[in-house]
Amino acid sequence: MTPDLFNKLARTRRSVFPDQFEPGKKVDDEIINEVVINATWAPNHGQQQPWQFTVFTGEGLKKLAAFQSELYKQEAVELFKEITYDKLQKQPLKASHIIAIGMKRTTTKNIPEIEDIEAVACAVQNIYLSVSAYGLGGYWTTGGITYFEKAKSFFGLGDQDRLLGFFYIGHVAIPSTGATRLPVEEKVNWVYV
Ligand SMILES: Cc1cc2nc3c(=O)[nH]c(=O)nc-3n(C[C@H](O)[C@H](O)[C@H](O)COP(=O)(O)O)c2cc1C
Questions:
Q1: Which helix (H) or strand (E) holds 169?
Q2: What's the pLDDT score for residue 142?
Q3: pTM of the entire structure?
Q4: Closest residue CA from atom 22 of ligand 1
Q5: Among residues 3, 25, 71, 72, which one has the fewest Cβ atoms lying within 10 Å of its Cβ?
Q6: CA torsion sign, 24 to 27 to 28 to 32?
Q7: Given the CA of residue 164, which atom of ligand 1 is nearest to it?
Q8: pLDDT at 126
């Protein structure tokens, strides 16, 4: 690793969405395992490692699709939209793997909840960078059932824990283009004295 290489990785990493994946082409489970190991090396306050991942692939993707679409139907009630239901059924099947991102709340130390969430977000950035380093595509979604209380137990999460979304992974058929960022001067103030 060199600074140049890392600068390139950090700046060229992009979200790649399911419609940009190569349909039906599976990523090796071994690669996903390495990606998840990298996630677990994220910084975390108090060494509590407050992440909990569930990896779906193969028939597991169908299980996730069925679960999330049915829970959405049950919970959305008057906000129900057929298009969302349909998407929740179909999107998972476009991915090779989906990692459900859970935050297991620290209970043994006095860590503010936001710091457990921040640690998991750091882990997700490791997933993003790892996927990019392997030449794969992926993105973090917080749509669908992410914030439904009733979703938690399906992912091994308890009342105090949080589901923080899903990371979709696949081989890239159509790369993402056109990313921009504001000039760094607009986002950073330097204090010299
Ligand atoms: C916490 C978080 C939640 C996100 N949720 C969604 C989402 O629900 N749907 C979506 O299309 N993208 C989602 N994204 C991905 C963003 O759309 C993406 O990061 C943004 O467009 C910038 O593109 P880039 O990742 O290629 O730099 C999310 C990203 C973050 C950090």
A1: strand 162-170
A2: 98
A3: 0.98
A4: 15
A5: 3
A6: negative
A7: 1
A8: 99
Cα of 110 from ligand 1 centre, angstroms: 30
Atom in ligand 1 nearest the alpha carbon of residue 143: 8
Q: What is the dihedral of CA 6, 8, 10, 14, to 10 degrees?
A: -150
Check if the beta carbon of residue 83 is closer than 8 Å to that of residue 94: no
> What was the pLDDT predicted at 92?
98
- With the most atoms of ligand 1 within 8 angstroms of its CB, the residue from 142, 145, 176 to mutate is 142
Other C-beta atoms closer than 10 Å to the C-beta of 174 total 12
Residue 115 per-residue DSSP state = H
C-alpha angle 146-151-156 in degrees, rounded to nearest 5:
110
Contact 16, 176 (CB under 8 A): yes
Cβ of 146 closer than 6 Å to ligand 1, yes or no, is no
Any ligand 1 atom below 6 A from CB of 10: no
Classify residue 83 as exposed, middle or buried by CB count within 10 Å of its CB (0-12, 13-18, 19+): exposed
Phi-psi region of 172 (alpha: psi -120 to 50; beta: other; left: phi over 0): beta
The low-confidence residues of the chain, meaning pLDDT below 50, are none
Residue 127: per-residue pLDDT: 99
